[in-house]
Amino acid sequence: xxxxxxxxxxxxxxxxxxxxxxxxxxxxxxxxxxxxxxxxxxxxxxxxxxxxxxxxxxxxxxxxxxxxxxxxxxxxxxxxxxxxxxxxxxxxxxxxxxxxxxxxxxxxxxxxxxxxxxxxxxxxxxxxxxxxxxxxxxxxxxxxxxxxxxxxxxxxxxxxxxxxxxxxxxxxxxxxxxxxxxxxxxxxxxxxxxxxxxxxxx
Length: 202
Ligand code: AR6
Description:
This protein is α/β, with parallel strands linked by helices. The chain has five helices and eight strands; from the N terminus they run βββααββαβαβαβ. It has helices at residues 47-56, 58-71, 107-124, 144-161, 175-192, and strands spanning 5-13, 16-22, 33-38, 79-83, 91-96, 129-132, 167-171, 196-201. An eight-stranded mixed β-sheet has the order 4-5-3-6-7-2-1-8, sandwiched between helices. A hairpin with a 2-residue loop joins β1 and β2. α3 (107-124) packs parallel to α4. 46% of the residues are buried. The site of ligand AR6 has 25 residues, from β3 and α1.
């Protein structure tokens, strides 16, 4: 059976869109860069981090080791780029989300920073398209509903301020996360009177 991907688009400004898509595997995305929900060691892990290193091959880990040797561990909310190895995406932007600790420990600001910094790094590389997973909502325990209302507006703001960036896509792994991000994108679009559309892609 051919699987179908639901797509919801918000037109943030002329020629720039925020896309919510899924259920889907981000390692299959052929945009300019995919974002990795890494940890501060940059040495790989489980979840989407493990999937990206498996699909991209050992050269990504070698590049991460060189970054850590040069600049130390990556703090939560920051982002760095490596190439994409064997992935269809040319680049991986590694960022470290906050570990959920109840919501009073700057989690929202750190999560917003992940999105802003990843888009800023991609824009500096003159890339036009980037795909995010739902950072921090797996092993790091950030409730998806709360995370979606941080991720969507911070990504949309960074997209509007970027020079080269044309598309920011969220590729969500499961249908519940997809629904929550779509709801957050709908209410964001309504609050800003932005045009939207939706369709299914095979
Ligand atoms: N494509 C898209 N999304 C995925 C994929 C995939 N292939 N695989 C998982 N997800 P998580 P975190 C979703 O746990 O919470 C690692 O060990 C997943 O369903 O990957 O930021 C790191 O090294 C969830 O919705 O990242 C860190 O130690 C989302 O990606 C820690 O986990 C994020 O889940 C980071 O935890």
